[in-house]
């Protein structure tokens, strides 16, 4: 069994993935495994991965996974998880990269702490600008109960830092069904995932490491494209709310889930100009329907405690949907 498996989903990143692969080479070790997933790319990504695999395999174990059809990021990660053999597992997107020696530090941190998973900070890069983004949990290198870090509802917490690649995870989480993603989600795939992890895992910690470089502003990234795939956040948060409502601590945890859902809806509404007109209309319709599905008393309570700008935007959407429904 390899000590660590790194799952790298790639789609149409033939130029950007070169930085990613060089960083894997700089972190390679005999007991590391790299699982390179080409999610049916339309460019030369597959050929780049094949060439890189030959070089990486001289030091580390390498698997190249080629699904028969494009499934999106969540499914690509699952395809990698299904074949990964490491005692510990982590993820790296095909347009991001590691600092030299980072993976060894990551493994040392989870082995020393002995917990289910360890989360880390990251460096966001936009063109030549770089900024460190820190995990919301202030306590470092201390083993904690993941459930306790879901709250508070009105401030940023661990579930608001959902990036799957910002951490390392023990194989027992795979065995318990906690590391796989909801198949087919094209965006917000890490939201149900991080909530499940914090509800059901037994222990975690945050390490003072920031050797992951996350590339922002990539032209073909879904965060930059206003097509219908962006609306998968609604399906993702519906899942968060549904699963959390069944939790024994639902009374405590559900207000956080609803508040986050509403905040994300308000965020997308504030950037509605980036969407194609038909998708913008669909965003309004589906967001209004999502608000109708939420527990209405809890919805009212959360809206009453949100800032005026976001609350007003959401109330307007809710009123229009109610009026349209009554007219119909």
Which keywords apply here?
about 325 residues, 7-stranded mixed beta sheet, 11 strands
Task: List strands and helices in order, with pairings.
Elements: E1 4-10, H1 17-27, E2 32-38, H2 45-56, E3 61-65, H3 73-83, E4 88-91, E5 97-98, H4 102-113, E6 117-120, E7 122-126, E8 129-133, E9 167-170, H5 171-175, H6 190-200, E10 204-207, E11 212-215, H7 232-245, H8 250-270, H9 277-293, H10 296-305, H11 308-327
Parallel strand pairs: 1-2, 1-4, 2-3, 6-10, 7-11
Antiparallel strand pairs: 4-9, 5-11, 6-9, 7-8
Helix pairs in contact: 1-2, 6-7, 7-8, 8-9, 8-10, 8-11, 9-11
What does this 3D model show about the protein?
The protein is globular and about 65 Å long. 44% of the residues lie in helices and 16% in strands. The termini are far apart. A seven-stranded mixed β-sheet has the order 3-2-1-4-9-6-10, with helices on both faces. It has a four-stranded mixed β-sheet with strand order 5-11-7-8. With 328 residues, it is α/β, with parallel strands linked by helices. The mean pLDDT is 95.
Instruction: Give the strand tally.
Output: 11
Main beta-sheet strand count, sense and barrel state: 7 strands, mixed
Determine Rg (CA atoms, Å).
20 Å
First-last Cα distance: 61 Å
Q: Count of DSSP helices?
A: 11
Name the beta content range.
15-25%
By secondary-structure content and strand pairing, the structural class works out as alpha/beta
Overall pLDDT level: 95
Order of helices and strands: EHEHEHEEHEEEEHHEEHHHHH
Strand order of the largest sheet: 3-2-1-4-9-6-10
Global morphology: globular
Helix percentage: 40-55%
Low-pLDDT segments: none
């Amino acid at each position: 069994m390899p000590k660590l498996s790194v799952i790298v989903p790639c789609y149409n990143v033939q130029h950007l993935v070169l930085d990613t692969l060089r960083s894997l080479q700089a972190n390679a070790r005999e007991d590391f495994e790299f699982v390179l997933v080409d999610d049916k790319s339309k460019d030369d990504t597959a050929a780049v991965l094949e060439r890189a695999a030959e070089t990486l395999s001289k030091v580390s174990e390498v698997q190249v996974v080629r699904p028969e059809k494009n499934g999106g990021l969540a499914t690509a990660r699952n395809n990698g998880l299904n074949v990964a053999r490491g005692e510990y597992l982590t993820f790296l997107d095909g347009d991001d990269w590691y600092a030299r020696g980072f993976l060894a530090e990551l493994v040392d941190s989870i082995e020393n702490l002995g917990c289910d998973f360890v989360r880390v900070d990251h460096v966001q890069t936009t063109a030549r600008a770089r900024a460190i983004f820190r995990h919301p949990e202030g306590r470092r290198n201390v083993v904690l109960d993941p459930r306790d870090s879901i709250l508070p509802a009105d401030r940023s917490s661990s579930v608001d830092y959902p990036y799957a690649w910002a951490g390392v995870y023990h194989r027992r989480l795979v065995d318990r069904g906690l590391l796989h993603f909801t198949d087919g989600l094209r965006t917000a795939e890490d939201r149900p995932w991080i909530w499940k992890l914090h509800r059901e895992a037994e222990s975690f910690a945050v390490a003072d490491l920031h050797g992951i470089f996350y590339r922002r502003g990539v032209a073909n990234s879904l965060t930059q494209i206003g097509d219908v795939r962006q609306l998968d956040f609604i399906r993702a948060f519906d899942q968060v709310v549904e699963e959390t409502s069944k939790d024994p601590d639902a009374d405590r945890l559900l207000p956080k889930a609803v508040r986050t859902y509403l905040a994300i809806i308000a965020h997308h509404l504030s950037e509605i100009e980036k969407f194609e007109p038909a998708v913008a209309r669909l965003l309004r319709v589906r967001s209004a329907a999502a608000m109708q599905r939420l527990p209405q008393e809890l919805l009212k309570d959360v809206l009453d405690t949100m800032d005026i700008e976001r609350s007003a935007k959401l109330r307007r959407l809710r009123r229009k949907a109610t009026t349209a429904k009554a007219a119909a």
